[in-house]
Amino acid sequence: MAGGSERTGMVESRGGSLWLTHVLMILGVLLIFFPIWLAFVASTVTQADLIKPPMPLLPGDHFLDNYKRALFAGVNVPVTTMLVNSLIMALGIAIGKIIISLLSAFAIVYFKFPGRSFFFWLIFITLMLPVEVRIVPTYEVIAGFGLLNSYSGLIFPLIASATATFLFRQFFMTIPDELAEAARVDGARPMRFFVDILLPMSRTNIAALFVILFIYGWNQYLWPLLITTDPSMNTIVMGLKQMFPSGDDFADWPVIMATSILAMIPPVIVVVSMQKLFIRGLVDSEK
Which domain holds residue 164? Predict the structure, then answer.
């Protein structure tokens, strides 16, 4: 009987703590979601509704009109153009970083050549050199190749990733050497071993890194601002900054808020669609 009472008490205690955890999580979600809800509401009303206090907390009836103006008219450039530019840049950076990092880690782990450790640490040291530090020489190189106002100029300088190389290297080092030996005995050449064995085993890691790198590329501001002078090459982050008024300029806040909501949609879609693989890639220890 005493044991049963103790178990009942543990269940009640655990249930109480679980209830409190859920309440705190719900409050946290509401706290984070509230500014997004306000932005959405602001994107569905008129300018007069926003200027006149108090600010509305329920959506208005100008949803289609405001989003149509944002997508096809915008303030300086249609949001559709900026979304396409950002999507191309984010996909190019994410895919490029993953490909280069996979090949670099594969060479460092499975090929023996002089200076292998030196080259790895040389790559790793670049973590201490962010874009802001090397931005002037990088700009000179891109300008010298005539890549200003181009997708190549937006993507190529940002596709090297020491972090992804390090993570793939650490994962490849956990793979038993017997697997590589068995592939070699079966006559598999290095690239066949890489494509047929290493890539399938790395899919959760690739998915996790893709989500992180896509958001990294999507949120880029300084580099696109520096190398693009053509408004048609503006990214969505640049466009949002340019929409805000300076001085006595007029701000079309419903269109700005609609643009902000549209700018959040692609990263949210990527995170939600790859959520399971993303979590497994971060926490799965079964390699």
Answer: 69-283
